[in-house]
Amino acid sequence: MSACIFCRIVDGDIPAKIALEDEQALAFEDTNAQAPVHILVIPKRHITSVDDCRESDQALLSHLLLTCSKVARIKNLAESGYRIVTNIGADGGQTVPHLHFHVLGGRHMAWPPG
Ligand code: AMP
Ligand code: ZN
């Protein structure tokens, strides 16, 4: 069994509220939502972060971003706007070392982030 919680969600060992799924990507609700809509978009294959990506991951990375925009459309965020965030490593605030994009919306987002 994988030690990575997001790999375990992909494997179906940990339940998640799935918003969207295809061969390469999974989108599910964040259990500690920071906005009315807070979905995580992850690759099904384990990659630690954007910093772990290689040239050969180009297509996967663009697929994940397009999946974020699909999720935003499904959640009716496209018109009002939304934010896509990916945290990398300790200073980036990453707590789960499996690449994920946060899709946040349904409220106004402040800038700069904390
Ligand atoms: P980050 O801090 O950028 O690594 O984001 C990790 C996110 O994963 C946090 O927003 C957590 O609330 C979320 N999270 C952790 N465990 C789970 C889980 N089992 N299901 C859904 N979201 C989770
Ligand atoms: Zn993983």
What does this entry look like structurally?
The structure is a single chain. This protein has 114 residues and is of the alpha+beta class. It has a single domain (5-105), classed as 2-Layer Sandwich (HIT family, subunit A). It is built from 3 helices and 5 strands. It has a 5-stranded antiparallel beta sheet with strand order 1-2-3-5-4, with helices on one face. The longest helix is centred in the middle third of the chain and has 17 residues, at 58-74. The protein is globular. The mean pLDDT is 97. The structure holds adenosine monophosphate and zinc ion (ZN).
Key phrases:
globular; binds adenosine monophosphate; alpha+beta; 114 residues; HIT family, subunit A; binds zinc ion
CATH architectural type: 2-Layer Sandwich
CA-atom Rg in angstroms: 14 Å
Would you identify the regions where 5 or more consecutive residues have pLDDT less than 50?
none
CATH topology: HIT family, subunit A
What's the number of domains?
1
Q: What is the structural class?
A: alpha+beta
Calculate the terminal CA-CA distance, rounded to whole Å.
35 Å
Instruction: State the helical fraction.
Output: 10-25%
The number of helices is 3
The largest sheet, given as strand count, sense and whether it forms a barrel, is:
5 strands, antiparallel
Look at the structure and name the CATH superfamily. Answer: HIT-like
Q: Give me the strand/helix succession.
A: HEEEHEHE
What oligomeric state do these chains adopt?
A: single chain
Q: If strands are numbered along the chain, what order do they take across the biggest sheet?
A: 1-2-3-5-4
How many beta-strand segments? 5
Strand content: 15-25%
